[in-house]
């Protein structure tokens, strides 16, 4: 059972292959889908649905899409669904993360959460939605080395940890993260419904 992951984000692709080990996971580009799907929905589920359905329709294969973001309490839940677009407005990812830290310098509320929506769409366009959320806080400085295109990992400390996502061992991060939660549900669904492992 081949699954096309509807992303150009290499960091997410690495994580998905780890979390769905045993499945044949290919990138959208590897499946011949080279377009960028415009993420213009106002929810994580909406964006993930749109990406998964477009890739499944174009490739005639099973497709999975994820839309994730970080919601920061002191910034009224921003950047939220605009997380990837927020960082694109800065020269580097590090500059974007430092701007967030700077915005929080005069507040005691550093709480935040990561949310992920993962959608599996079959070649006929039928979809299943899985979701995950993890609460934590924003670190006072950038810490650790993040995977490509996952810059928020350098500033997000999950609840109960004194390390950022970027400082955690990848298997430990995947076991607790928002995306890890959603993909665990997806994996269990695939095994239960289709008998794959």
Topology as H/E string? EHEHEHHEEEHH
Structural class: alpha/beta
Strand percentage lies at 15-25%
Main pleated sheet: 6 strands, mixed
Number of domains: 1
Mean pLDDT: 94
* Number of helices, where a helix is a run of at least 4 consecutive DSSP H or I residues: 6
Shape: globular
| Rg result | 17 Å
User: Considering DSSP H and I runs of 4 or more, what fraction of the residues is helical?
Assistant: 25-40%
N-to-C terminal Cα separation, in Å? 10 Å
Low-confidence stretches: none
Q: Please give the CATH class.
A: Alpha Beta
Assign the CATH architecture.
Answer: Alpha-Beta Complex
- Strand elements, count: 6
What spatial order of strands do you see in the largest sheet?
2-1-3-4-5-6
Give a quick summary of the entry.
This protein is α/β, with parallel strands linked by helices and 197 residues long.
SSE layout and pairing:
Blueprint: E1 2-5, H1 10-19, E2 24-27, H2 44-59, E3 62-72, H3 83-87, H4 93-103, E4 111-121, E5 127-138, E6 156-158, H5 170-176, H6 178-194
Parallel strand pairs: 1-2, 1-3
Antiparallel strand pairs: 3-4, 4-5, 5-6
Helix pairs in contact: 5-6
How would you sum up this structure, described in words?
The chain has helices at 10-19, 44-59, 83-87, 93-103, 170-176, 178-194, and strands at 2-5, 24-27, 62-72, 111-121, 127-138, 156-158. With 197 residues, the chain is α/β, with parallel strands linked by helices. It has one domain: Maf protein (Alpha-Beta Complex). Strands 2-1-3-4-5-6 form a 6-stranded mixed beta sheet. Strand 4 (111-121) and strand 5 (127-138) form a beta hairpin. Helix 5 (170-176) crosses helix 6. The mean pLDDT is 94.
